[in-house]
């Protein structure tokens, strides 16, 4: 096992433990809210419990992706299962865009047709949610960051923002009768969540489409190699990644002399130094 693979596996083992704690805590609190809401007849409590349940699902999905990413490569899956992480991040990113849209629609509906709100119950839910999401958020800050972790963290932050807005709205309603704070707070929070969801979705979609990772330039690689020798023609450069950590490049080079063929290791080291891509992840196609 290479040092990069060992580091990758160690990182995912750490993230796996943290995801288990985060998902377990979130799922437990979601079940408590749903059961308490059912017993007390509070739709708001049940609704928040269902929302927390969706976040627990997102954390479980991130956990599954982390576990799958550590599975060894096979003859049929030569890159292993490391793409599970950007796939999970893409799904979580989409939910961060879709769910807030429904929340905004409901908030607009409530602005047009206001409903009675029980501020005391709302305040209790908000404070408990704030504490639980704060703990889960703290747990995830200890994880080694990647798109999978960021998407899960964004779900938790979304809940954190929601809990803060619920507490503020509940206090405003309780002491000043400002019922409009509830839908307005929901809309503002949803807009922030959507912005983060779009960013995560775009980044993970770029990986899944084997797009050039951020920070890498195909033209710079071409120009660097072209300047080595006038006899060398760089016909094509492809840069892609399996996940955020593993970047690969394929370079097609044409030369009338044996220069390139005899200097493959030198070229790889040059590209590696210029791009920070490990030389083992650089492939040369010499014509």
TrEMBL record:
KW Cell division (keyword) present: no
Chief location of this protein within or outside the cell: membrane
InterPro entries: Cation_efflux, Cation_efflux_TM, Cation_efflux_TMD_sf, CDF/SLC30A
Any one Pfam family match given in the protein's UniProt record, by short name: Cation_efflux
Membrane topology: Multi-pass membrane protein
Record-annotated membrane-spanning stretches: 18-44, 56-74, 86-105, 117-140, 152-173, 179-198
SUPFAM superfamilies named in the record: Cation efflux protein transmembrane domain-like
Record keywords: Membrane, Transmembrane, Transmembrane helix
Cation efflux protein transmembrane domain boundaries: 22-209
Subcellular location per the Swiss-Prot or TrEMBL entry: Membrane
Keyword Transcription set for record: no
PANTHER family, per database record: CATION EFFLUX PROTEIN/ ZINC TRANSPORTER, RE54080P-RELATED
Name of the molecule in the record: Cation diffusion facilitator family transporter
Organism: Niallia hominis
């Amino acid at each position: 096992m290479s040092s990069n693979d060992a580091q990758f596996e160690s990182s995912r083992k750490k993230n796996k433990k943290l995801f288990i704690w985060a998902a377990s805590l979130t799922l437990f609190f979601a079940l408590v809210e749903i059961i308490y809401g059912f017993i007390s007849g509070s739709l708001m409590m049940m609704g928040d419990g269902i929302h927390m349940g969706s976040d627990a699902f997102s954390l479980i999905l991130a956990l599954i992706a982390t576990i799958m990413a550590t599975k060894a490569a096979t003859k049929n899956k030569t890159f292993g299962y490391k793409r599970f992480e950007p796939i999970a991040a893409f799904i979580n990113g989409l939910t961060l865009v879709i769910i807030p849209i429904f929340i905004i629609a409901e908030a607009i509906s409530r602005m047009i047709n206001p409903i009675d709100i029980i501020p005391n119950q709302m305040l209790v839910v908000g404070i408990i949610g704030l504490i639980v999401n704060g703990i889960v958020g703290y747990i995830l800050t200890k994880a080694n960051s990647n798109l999978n972790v960021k998407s899960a963290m964004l779900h938790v932050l979304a809940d954190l923002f929601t809990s803060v807005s619920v507490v503020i709205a509940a206090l405003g309603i309780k002491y000043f009768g400002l019922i409009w704070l509830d839908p307005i707070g929901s809309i503002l929070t949803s807009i922030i969540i959507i912005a983060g969801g779009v960013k995560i979705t775009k980044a993970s979609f770029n990986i899944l489409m084997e797009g050039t990772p951020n920070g890498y330039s195909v033209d710079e690689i071409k120009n660097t190699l072209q300047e080595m020798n006038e006899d060398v023609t760089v016909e094509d450069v492809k840069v892609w990644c399996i996940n955020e950590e593993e970047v690969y490049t394929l370079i097609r080079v044409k030369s009338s002399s044996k220069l390139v063929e005899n200097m493959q290791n030198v070229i790889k080291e040059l590209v590696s130094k210029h791009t920070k891509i490990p030389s083992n992840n650089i492939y040369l196609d010499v014509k």
